[in-house]
Amino acid sequence: MKKEYVIRIEGCDASTFFRTQMTEVEAEAFIGLCLESQKASTYACMPVLKIYLYSDYRVRYEDETEREYLERGYDEEKELSKAAAVRKTGTSILVEPDIHAMPEIGSIISFGGYDWRVLDIQDGKALLLSGKIVERRAYNQSNTDITWVECDLRCYLNGEFYDSLGEEKARIAEIKVKTNDNLWYGTDGGVKTTDKVFLLSLEEVVKYFGDSGQLKNRPDGAWYIDDEYSSARIVTDKNGEALWWWLRSPGDGSYSVAGVGPDGYICVYGSSSIAWSDGGVRPAMWLNL
């Protein structure tokens, strides 16, 4: 299987960029040439070769904050032309990822045409959560008693959405997913599932976005969690609009599903309608590194 790469040749006075397709074996061989060129350049003014995955080749403007840069996403049609303009205009900072670099928790990586936040790394796999709402979709097409195992959104994520990720999807690990009962209302979370793509649970949102202790110790009369971590849970769609996003945990009953509101509060009580088509979808997955 061939992938798209960017080759950069750094001379003493100028640099050249071009794109090419190579298999992973060919890329490994080219990396060896890159290393040799870097060693030689320490003794003489000789060209240096560098290689990057095209999907990871990014440009950050000098007036962009780190958050703006991460949220802007990857534009396949424009990134290379922006990169080439760096030398001409001097108005941008070229971000040069290492093709062999391991992702770090909290970093943003590109995969399958989307940007993903790395939430965790365990046993050679990274837990990814989409950096933005990827689309608006109902949790289930009809309002009925249901759990994660039976819902239409699980079927979609592990079917049509998974297939849309292209050849890279082979790196996604198939895992056992447990959905606990709702801690506040006791609603049944259903049986364990085997998924490649899933939604976060109430416990996982608290674990990875910050735990104020309220999920395990419910404040009197509370039906949602609004704490010091709410702002970190706010996410927008591609148009910059902050939206509710679905979780897989049940709400106050088997007809309701928990979620995160547009202000970042965790709605433990759940949605008023699981058939609401404007609910934001924020997929998660474990990716083999």
Report on this structure:
20% of the residues lie in helices and 27% in strands. It is an alpha+beta fold. The chain has a 4-stranded antiparallel beta sheet, with no helix packed on it. It has a 3-stranded antiparallel beta sheet with strand order 2-1-3, sandwiched between helices. A hairpin with a 2-residue loop joins strand 7 and strand 8.
User: What is the quaternary state of this protein?
Assistant: single chain
Q: What is Rg?
A: 22 Å
Number of helical segments?
A: 5
Sequence of secondary-structure elements: EEHEEHHEEEEEHEEHEEEEE
Distance between the termini: 17 Å
Overall shape: it is: elongated
Strand order of the largest sheet: 6-7-8-16
Which segments are poorly predicted (pLDDT under 50) over 5 or more consecutive residues?
none
Largest sheet: 4 strands, antiparallel
Q: Which range best describes the helical content: under 10%, 10-25%, 25-40%, 40-55%, 55-70% or over 70%?
A: 10-25%
- Number of beta strands: 16
Which whole number gives the mean pLDDT? 83
How many independent structural domains? 2
Q: Structural class of the helices, strands and pairings?
A: alpha+beta
Q: Into which percentage range does the β-strand content fall?
A: 25-35%
Keywords:
2 domains; 27% strand; three-stranded antiparallel beta sheet; alpha+beta; four-stranded antiparallel beta sheet; 289 residues; elongated
